[in-house]
Amino acid sequence: MSYWKPTTCMRCAVGCGQQQRGVDEGYGIDTVRGNRNHPVSNGLACERGIRETENPSGEWLTEPLVRRGDTLKPTSWATALGIVASEFIQTIAEDPNRIAVLGSGQQTNEAAYALGKVARAGIGTEHFDANTTLCMSSAVTAYYDAFGSDAPPCTYDDIPKAETHVVWGANPAAAHPVLYRWILDSASEPDSRLVVVDPVRSETAADADRCVQLEAGTDVELARAILARLVETDRVDRAFVDEATDGYDELVESLPAVECAAATAGVSVEAVDALADAFEDRTLVYWGMGVNQSTNGTDAARSLINLCLATGNMGPGSGPFSLTGQANSMGARVVSSKEAWPGHRPFTDDDHRAAVADHWDVPLSRLPESPGPGPVGIVDEINRGHIDACWTVATNPVVGMPDATNVRRSLDDIFLVVQDAFRSETVEYADVVLPAATWGESEGTTMNMERRVSKVTAVSDTIDTVRRDLDIIAAIGNRIDETLFDGPPVDPESVFDEFAALTEGTPADCSGITYDRLDAELAVRWPAPDESTEGGYRYHDPDADDGETWSFPTDTGRAQFTEPTYKGLPEPTDATYPLTLTTGRRAEAYNTDVRADGQTGDVPTARIHPETAGQYVQLFDRGRTVVESRRGSVTVDLAPDDAVPPETIWMDIHNTAVNELTLPAVDPESNEPNYKQCAVRLATPDTSSTVTRNGLPRTGTLGSD
């Protein structure tokens, strides 16, 4: 009989502890449950995390495949790896930057570190991304600008201490159920409250004491209006501002008139006042993809941080808390050499680049000097003919990236290697498919959104034709440079130790974390510079000997106010495309739903205000209509819902069809795509008639615009 083993859920980024048990015969997981001893979740678990760990319903990949004509055919591992290595080595000889590598927040830290090492030190390409640019890059940029370091200053320990919880552009009731329970428990205390800011009244908003519905994409202006009101009414914490920050006076000079900014955001001045009142208490501000995934995403995140700094909402029970999307997005940022070298070493700093090259024992000249343009930029480079090969690991860009038709066309034109546990839509465009083990078959670690490292354990072997991510990556890496790894098979503990040593002395110091320590403590929060300490609230030391309780890794040692500006929407509505599409998450789905194949259905649902639905009733056929953007069209089931504002359509970002519509514009500083707003219109299901804002029929196809 198999025994229970502790592990960590790899669904979302809360990092809940689980116990799992393998089947008595054969391969696979028998049972999964919450782990009462885990310091993160104390036995709590969500149904989705349990279900998709225990019995994912996607189609498993069970053997390597190679393309023969129009068909993927089974092959041996030796043949598959030989083809990949041969293609990569030939391309590297021409130009390493002609290879792109796309990783994921669904990998262990060890696999993500190894993939970054192969991409940067083996191949030497700047065209590498760990998927963080699709979800967290705007928040990362804002954190660096304000604090000199990535990651939230606050932790889960601060949630029960907060008096006001402001959830902005996020829906943790659907996306992070366990975290949301903590928020609700705290907000239900006397003199506590939950305030939600979102264009759509979400499941989280249903529990809120107040919900402010702003125009999609105008978060910067609403946050600036709130700060302007706080300044006008003398509710700025000048003691904190003077002690610990720079740039306040310059920021105040840049603020708009409250009435003007409120009008841009589509809210009343009274709503601005109510939000300003919220910041008078000890306040945690949580934000998610509704803020980040925008061409204004970095400035929106900066604006929320400015609100916390100006009101002194820094320290236990308060602060700016970005909510991470994928399970190991935090880990990917710390380990994978995407936007920074491991440990958040600055990517373009010569001394840090030299330290990394020395640690990896590779020529400094091999390491790229640029962190790269992000996934959308990589697709652009493919379209320009600058990239010949792409390797995707545990990610599904054909569905998950904006303007999906263009992504499919781009990947179909190059040599594509897909490494995954499940048969995703991207697999169908691959030249070589490498079947990987999934969570219950892999050993390693993960890192949650509050910086805690914990172990992922295997309770089942894999079948002979499936290999673990780390071993696949090492096999390819060693064919490029035989000195990169010992093995495969590769010991994940040795890879973690190599990574941890590289972080010593950095802001994300993990050098005091070991597998033995994780076995004993289950989860350890960085920075952990030795085996007896772990990180708490960052930048704050109430017991400092010199009396200075705040210290930030910026040039001045003080937090920095920034001066955000609103740039408008990249694709505003007009007479031809009069409606705004925005996207969000459903509780039962996640990412591109590869692990829950078939649960989204063939036809996505579009939620629309009943009043707006009434204006377009002539375009409905038995409850169906077509949503069109300048990039594509999707047949949808219509769901009238007054939680969605008039002139707006809400669709599930996990559905495979939605990114046919979305816009590939990116934030100019973070390169994060603008998933959350694009201009659309409705058409009859046969697309023979489209109605525009003036109410007149428009006939023809998208090509006639």
UniProtKB/TrEMBL annotation:
One Pfam family it belongs to: Molybdop_Fe4S4
GO cellular component, one term: membrane
Entry-linked SUPFAM superfamilies: ADC-like, Formate dehydrogenase/DMSO reductase, domains 1-3
MF (Gene Ontology): 4 iron, 4 sulfur cluster binding; metal ion binding; molybdopterin cofactor binding; oxidoreductase activity
Record-annotated 4Fe-4S Mo/W bis-MGD-type domain positions: 2-56
Coiled-coil intervals, chain numbering: none
Protein name from the UniProt record: Molybdopterin-dependent oxidoreductase
